[in-house]
Amino acid sequence: MRCCRLSLLAAAISVASGFVSPSSRGQSSPLSMAKTGDEVATSSRRRFIDSVSSGAAVAASSVLFTPSPAFAYGLGKANDKLKSYGLPGLVNVPGSYSALAEIYGKGANRSPLLVAFGFPIDWVVTLPSQDVNGEDGTIQAGEYAKGDTATFFVLPNEGKVDIQSKDKKFFAEALIAAISQKSSNIYQDFKVTKMEPSADGKYMYVNFKYTLLTGAGFEVERKGVASVTSVGNGVQLLWSASIAARYRAKTEDQLNTIVRSFVCYSDGLNFSADLRPGMENDF
Question: In Å, how far are 109, 127, 152, 188 from 137, measured between CA atoms?
């Protein structure tokens, strides 16, 4: 079984990397190569790309992202978590959505943050892994079979900033860092297309697009939206994207709903009850 999984992971790593899974980018593809030469020749380029992308993500959802029965989420539970910290509940989350409120940074190698956002009820959630060396990975939800994801990201080596004073270049660089965590060679033609501040001035909503470069030599256009903020001593964002064709036809409103529900907290909170043993005295 171990060898089988490793083979599957290697087969689709180049495609799956565009979806930025939380702790490992390897995803496997069940795409059959038994078609005849004539059949392949008559298949459209788009269908091939979509099949590879979807197949890789489907296999990954069973190999890497199988949720535990303990992974029970919901708007009520997320709001209860926020309330336990004296914070308001999530707003503008549709009734057909689930939600999460989780601590990012339970290990000694990260500063803790309380992250919450809504997402479609049929999406799969993955959380950071914990071991003796600290914490690895991030908070992510997605419908991996379709290439739709929402991923939390902390900008490295960046202190607290005034988000509203930052220009387009700042947000472009932040998002490029987010989508290219494992490699700078998986994308091209990145562009910020729109910026809009939140009503309270704490977040900046950023629309963007880019082209995913696959290991098979194909290019996949992707579009998305992000919510960027700055709490504690850093800059944080939730970015959500899908294949461009799906964005135009279906997911634009969905992804905007997700990122506009996103909240991130740090200042003045006591995280000791939620941290790994040995870290309680640090925060």
Answer: 12, 7, 10, 24
CA 57, CA 51: separation in Å to the nearest integer? 10
Q: Which residues pair with 229 in a beta bridge?
A: 236
Supply the CATH classification number for the domain 75-282. 3.40.1000.10
**Average pLDDT of each block of 10 consecutive residues along the chain (283 residues)?**
40 43 41 40 44 41 39 86 97 94 91 96 93 89 95 95 97 96 80 97 98 87 98 97 97 98 95 72 47
In the chain, where the domains are located: 2-63, 75-282
- At 279 the pLDDT is 53
What distance in Å separates the CA atoms of residue 33 and residue 49, rounded to the nearest whole number?
14
Query: Which pTM value belongs to this model?
Result: 0.76
Q: Where are the beta strands (DSSP E) in 92-213?
A: 97-104, 113-120, 124-126, 129-131, 134-136, 140-143, 148-154, 187-197, 204-213
Paired residues of 185 in beta bridges: none
Q: How distant, in Å, are the alpha carbons of 92, 172, 177, 226 from that of 197?
A: 16, 15, 21, 11
Secondary structure of residue 65 in the 3-state scheme: coil
CB neighbours (10 Å) of residue 252?
16
Give Cα separations from 46 to 67, 138, 140, 221 (angstroms). 30, 30, 27, 10
Instruction: List, in sequence order, every residue forming a beta bridge with 101; answer none if it has no partner.
Output: 116
φ and ψ of 253, to 5 deg: -65, -40
- C-alpha span between 200 and 58 (Å, rounded): 39
